[in-house]
Specification:
The chain is of the alpha+beta class. It contains ten helices and 19 strands. The protein has helices at about 5-30, 40-50, 50-60, 65-90, 95-115, 125-160, 170-215, 280, 315-320, 345-350; strands at about 265-270, 275, 285-295, 305-315, 330-335, 340-345, 355-360, 365, 375, 390-395, 420-425, 430, 435-445, 450-455, 460-465, 465, 475-485, 485-495, 520-525. Helix 6 (about 125-160) runs antiparallel to helix 7. The chain is globular, with a radius of gyration of 31 Å.
Length: about 525
């Protein structure tokens, strides 16, 4: 088949569209911090499907360059397919879109075979295909405009001289041709920039994961704690897996900091300023403790709360080393990305196990949870205490600053309120009459839970059995055996902390300092 000038423009459009799609998928992969990008997944799949003898032949001739070679060949192949698809799009855009969809399926299947299950693993490939199709539509439409203008020129020549040849393009055709080339160049340059940014993010993640692997054996294992479970399926596990630990922060792109580049500065109203690197921090002595963290945005009955076994360096002794001025009443902590939190100084120096945390559940922190160092402070909501990627502590006064969330209407100080939650059964459940187990969790960090009670409809409050708690800084599981009778019933729960203060029934939203009220469910018993 003889290729025309229109085919050439179609090939440019298809190649640039593929480049744009791959670039955006690289960027999305960098933000999602996945192990491999869609292109790398295809390359790895090719290696996996290639006969061993062929692989050995390639390795023998190119050595350690085999993987870059396969990735390069994959990119070239995708570019060729893109060019062919662009040519096809000049004739049938529907057929071209089907080709791109098939390419998307190949990318997604490759990702599926190379990455563990997760809500984000398909996202880069899907976004890349969508972007490629949109760019293809734009460029092919621009290329067709050039073809239309050229056809008009030819028609005028035929009418004027009966000659189908025009030696120079009209101003209109030349303008549309330049517009097409300019648009293609802009998209191509943007795609290159986006791809570089995506690879930079991916490289940063690789460095962090290598550092985490080096530290993996330094923080011990998670001890077994007897009696912390009520033995009811469906209740939140007492230890929250890291992958399920709630995450609330303002970082669109997770900061990627390696320990060798990390420093902590302590300054402000102190006798001497202190700067610590990662190893100097650990040299102060690592301790371990069970601590439950809770977000101030957690509604009544919500799940923005988790429990983990933390390893870290106590904050109090380091502040004592710096020599805190008696007039100070707060610490303003800063993250590497500029986020700030104001913490009552007393909560860091009153003996509770406030930590510069470096590990959770026996493993170094993940980047999403603050690697290499974050703060955890028992008894305070995260917005005033749990600074991730912490690099700066300024000893100061509350009257002299406004932290990130307090600037947005939240209370300057955020002690955790006593709360309880029903996990089993779920709201709206249909149950069989007879014995029904009600169960859930309750928390009042740094005060502890002394009792939990449930109420069925308008009946009396009935005391539940509660599991053990190794520390007042953790949540407690609770359970109650109910002899359910037919009908629709309302169940609510309340807790009392170890100071004797009961959970308030007053209903309040999360703003400005945490939600209150009783969690309740409605169930139907048959």
């Amino acid at each position: 088949m003889r290729l025309t000038a229109d085919d050439g423009r179609g090939a440019i459009a298809g190649t640039v569209a593929v480049a744009a799609g791959l670039a955006v998928s690289e960027l999305a992969n960098g933000f999602a911090h996945l192990r491999v990008s869609p292109v790398e997944a295809v390359a790895e799949s090719i290696i996996r499907l290639t006969p061993g003898s062929v692989v050995e032949f390639v390795i023998a001739h190119v050595g350690h360059n085999d993987k870059p070679l396969v990735i390069g060949l994959t990119l070239v192949s995708l570019a060729i397919i893109g060019a062919a698809t662009g040519i096809l799009a000049m004739r049938s855009q529907v057929a071209a879109e089907l080709v791109f969809l098939v390419m998307g399926v190949v990318l997604i299947l490759s990702v599926r075979s190379r990455l563990p299950a997760g809500p984000t693993r398909y996202l880069p490939a899907a976004i890349g295909v969508l972007v490629a199709m949109v760019v293809l539509w734009l460029l092919v439409d621009a290329a067709k405009d050039v073809a239309k203008d050229m056809a008009k020129d030819m028609a005028k020549d035929v009418a004027a001289s009966s000659s189908p040849v025009r030696r120079t393009a009209s101003p209109g055709a030349e303008t549309s041709r330049r517009s097409f080339l300019r648009l293609s160049a802009v998209v191509g340059i943007a795609a290159l920039s986006v791809a570089v940014l995506g690879r930079t993010l991916a490289h940063g993640r690789a460095q962090v994961e290598a550092a985490r692997a080096t530290l993996a054996r330094r923080f011990g294992s998670v001890p077994s704690v007897p009696g912390v479970s009520v033995g009811v399926d469906g209740v939140a596990t007492w230890v929250t897996p890291v992958s399920e630990f709630y995450r609330i922060d303002t970082a669109l792109a997770v900061p990627l900091v390696v320990p060798d580049d990390w420093q902590l500065r302590i300054h402000g109203m102190v006798e001497k300023e202190i700067t610590l690197d990662y190893e100097q921090l650990l040299a102060r002595g690592v301790t371990h403790d069970w601590l439950t963290l809770c977000c101030v945005s957690n509604p009544v009955g919500g799940d923005l709360i988790s429990n983990a076994y933390w390893a870290g360096v106590p904050i109090g002794p380091i502040l004592a080393e710096a020599g805190v001025h008696p007039e100070a009443d707060a610490v303003l902590s800063r993250s590497v990305d500029g986020w700030t939190a104001g913490t009552p100084l007393a909560a860091l120096t009153d003996g509770r196990n406030a930590l510069f945390a470096v590990a959770m559940n026996g493993q170094p922190l993940t980047p999403e949870h603050g690697f290499p160092v974050r703060m955890v402070v028992p008894g305070l909501y995260g917005y005033v205490s749990a600074t991730k990627w912490v690099v700066d502590l300024e000893v100061t006064r509350f009257s002299d600053f406004a932290a990130y969330w307090t600037q947005r209407g939240w209370s300057p100080q955020g002690p955790v309120k006593t709360q309880s939650r029903i996990d089993v059964p779920r709201n709206g459940s249909s149950l069989a009459a007879g014995r029904v187990t009600l169960a859930g969790v309750a928390w009042a960090q740094h005060r502890g839970i002394s009792k939990v009670e449930v109420q069925i409809d308008d009946g009396p409050w009935r005391r539940c059995r509660i599991a053990a708690d190794p520390t007042v800084d953790c949540w407690r599981q609770w359970a109650y055996e109910w002899q359910a009778t037919p009908g629709t019933h309302t169940v609510q729960v309340r807790a009392t902390d170890r100071t004797g203060e009961p959970q308030t029934s007053k209903v309040a939203g999360v703003l400005p300092d945490g939600a209150t009220g009783y969690d309740h469910i409605s169930v139907t018993v048959h």
